[in-house]
Design a protein that fits this description.
With 164 residues, this protein is mostly helical. Helices cover 87% and strands 0% of the residues.
């Protein structure tokens, strides 16, 4: 059945256009998975920051407060990098969606727009790379702050020595 206001496009042409658009879809799935990881980490950082803020506001020993303030500064940095990673990876995902739609439409109208597609793909990769760099900075900040305090290690060493 053919509708008068729609062009008659063979199914084989539609199938070929879908095959061309499939590649970026896999990139979109990977980007979505990355966003899932980043937002999960970001949620845990925000939860920890809220706990520390509450402890500081309720008042605590000076030593603990100083330690918690240092941790809060690191968490603030991690939130900044995490939010930036989410923004850039989301931008990449949106650009991938535009790329898929553009490839699909341009294939039907027969337009030679290879340069537009290439530029859009470069924008996708630039946004994704920048998002990954922000994610790496967040991970680096987290691992830099992760260290066992000396007094905890000394206490563990003393209890092991007294048992022997």
């Amino acid at each position: 059945m053919s509708l008068p206001f729609l062009p008659n496009i063979p199914v084989s042409d539609i199938s070929a256009a879908i095959q061309v658009a499939i590649g970026p879809i896999f990139l979109l799935v990977g980007t979505g998975s990355l966003l899932n990881v980043v937002t999960g980490r970001l949620g845990r950082v925000v939860d920890r920051a809220r706990v520390l803020e509450r402890l500081i506001e309720e008042g605590e020993e000076e030593v603990l407060e100083r330690r918690h303030l240092m941790e809060l500064k690191a968490l603030d940095r991690r939130m900044k990098y995490g939010n930036r990673a989410v923004l850039l990876c989301s931008l990449s995902a949106v650009l991938i969606c535009i790329l898929v739609a553009l490839v699909f439409v341009l294939d039907f109208i027969g337009a030679a727009a290879g340069i537009i597609i290439a530029i859009l793909f470069m924008m996708v990769m630039a946004a994704l790379a920048a998002g990954l760099i922000s994610f790496l900075l967040e991970v680096h900040t987290a691992t830099r702050f992760l260290r066992v305090r000396h007094e905890v290690l000394a206490r563990q060493h003393k209890s092991a020595s007294s048992e022997a």
